[in-house]
Write a structure and sequence with these properties.
This is Limonene hydroxylase. With 500 residues, the chain is mainly alpha-helical. It contains 30 helices and no strands.
């Protein structure tokens, strides 16, 4: 997933974020996550590209790339006329991958400190390109944050820049933790992950309690911080006392994700007191289990305990056998609260309680709700598939989707109907001949992804199952197709060859 950039906006990134900061609460005003250098194309979530690089790729820049940035930086410090050249050099770099080497060089370079600071401040507050802003923040980290604390706190409110702001804020006299905790409460994505990891060693009991109850929650994946939370917040110790209901809910959510050892970071096996904490939690569940989040936690613990802690597995089974879970799940399907509804839907799938009618009801109210369409298709069987497909052809504007091939990426509100095809086309490959109007719309969609999915659906069908008009539709699609890769797949499809 890579971003195509557009020309610089007259509004700097710092000005953009400042204009979207909320007076209260986390996140930014609507439109704040988009940045002035965004362009059309598939987007990474804010901070995601840097976060993935740090966590999973362990990547560092090539020496020649570091050298190019060094030279451009030195020239810009020595003369303002080289500023634009620095921006161009940095634009295509990944600052996160070269910042350590670069800052080490700056410390030893003999560059004029005042001129370097002025350049850093200009980059951080006036640049229109995110990599230039990151470079500016990183350079500001060489100086006491007392001089630019407010600017760093503003930039840090956007997850794309939080990790740079937190490092720069650390170079400050006084209570740095207070600033980092304030930022942590006001970001919800990759920025929170970086901040909570930095705060994990705090001696402040209020921060530790917040991490355990709330701070681990984020918009990326709670598992990134679950292990940090149970250790920093001493989950086992807290469960040994008299935990309140909210703490038991937090513990439930933590166990639910920690027991998934296939996640992006180490799970419950990395928590030294995991077995003790699980036993204490199950003790509370014996008398206090009354929420579907409790059910998910106990079920996850049962799966893990069966292999690792067999003496706890039977205790889990006794809790899971209670009839109240199915009653809670059915009740939740009628909730107007989306989070509660999806918890109920998840529980129903685990318990074997049908949910199709509930999801069909939801898409009647919100025809472009992709998640509900996905769940409808997941639950549909030979007896109900026709009902789902009939409703889809009634509710989705297939004629407006099938306007002809183009090279659209399908992002944005105008393509909400097109994105709904993602719920149908992959699954229809399992149902030869079913849902042809949807497949035909995908074949003629301006969104490249739709066309590729429609091709794969038809390839999965035996051609004998194709409707009479399908071959002519594929032939017409081939004649109009602007994308070379899609044309090749269409040709392979007509010739009966496998589609990769």
């Amino acid at each position: 997933m890579f971003r195509r950039r557009r020309q610089a906006s007259p509004t700097s990134i710092f000005e953009h974020i400042s204009a979207h900061v909320l007076a209260e609460g986390p996140g930014l005003r609507e439109g704040g996550e988009s940045l002035p250098d965004d362009g059309p194309g598939t987007m990474w979530a804010p901070g995601a590209q840097d976060g993935v690089l740090l966590y999973h790729w362990g990547g560092s820049a090539e020496p020649h790339e570091v050298e190019r940035v060094r030279e451009a930086l030195a020239a810009a410090v020595r003369g303002r006329s080289a500023y634009d050249a620095l921006i161009e050099t940095v634009r295509e770099a990944r600052v996160i991958s070269l910042v350590d080497d670069l800052l080490g060089w700056v410390r030893e370079s003999g560059l004029d400190p005042e001129a370097t600071y002025q350049l850093a401040y200009r980059l951080a507050t006036r640049a229109h390109d995110r990599e230039a802003v990151k470079l500016g923040i990183a350079l500001l980290g060489l100086y006491s944050a007392d001089h630019h604390r407010d600017e760093l706190m503003t930039l840090g409110r956007h997850d794309e820049f939080t990790i740079f702001a937190l490092v720069a804020l650390a170079n400050r006299e006084g209570d740095v933790e207070a600033d980092l905790w304030e930022l942590a409460r006001n970001v919800t994505g990759w920025g929170r992950i970086h901040l909570v990891e930095r705060l994990a060693d705090t001696g402040d009991p209020l921060i530790r309690d917040w991490i355990l109850r709330e701070g681990f929650r984020n918009d990326v994946m709670d598992q990134y911080l679950a292990g940090v939370a149970v250790a920093a917040g001493d989950l086992a110790g807290r469960l040994a006392d008299a935990p309140d209901d909210d703490l038991l809910i937090a513990a439930s959510d933590l166990f639910d994700v920690l027991c998934d050892e296939g996640g992006p970071v180490e799970g419950i096996s990395g928590y030294d007191e995991g077995e003790r904490a699980a036993g204490l939690f199950l003790g509370h569940m014996a008398t206090r289990a009354d929420d579907l989040r409790h059910y998910f936690a106990v079920r996850s613990l049962q799966t893990y305990a069966t292999e690792h802690w067999p003496h706890l597995a039977d205790r889990c089974a006794a809790i899971l056998q209670r009839p109240l879970w199915a009653d809670l799940a059915r009740l939740g399907l009628g909730s107007t609260d989306e989070a509660e509804f999806y918890r109920a839907s998840r529980a129903c799938r685990m318990l074997g309680v049908p949910t199709l009618e509930a999801h069909l009801s939801r898409v009647r109210d919100k025809p472009y709700d992709l998640r509900h369409w996905h769940l409808c298709m997941k639950e549909a069987d030979s007896g109900t598939l026709g009902q789902v497909l009939d409703l889809a052809t009634d509710l989705l504007p297939l004629n407006r989707i099938a306007t002809g091939p183009a090279e659209e990426d399908g992002l944005g509100p105008d393509f909400a109907p097109h994105r709904c095809l993602d719920a149908f086309l992959p699954k229809l490959g399992e149902w030869p001949g079913q849902g042809w109007p949807i497949v035909a719309a995908g074949l003629a969609s301006p969104v490249v992804r739709n066309r590729n999915m429609a091709i794969r659906t038809l390839a999965a069908w035996d051609e004998a199952a194709w409707p009479a008009e399908a071959r002519d539709a594929v032939t017409a699609a081939l004649a109009r197709e602007p994308d070379a890769d899609v044309r090749e797949r269409l040709q392979l499809l007509l010739e009966g060859h496998p589609i990769e």
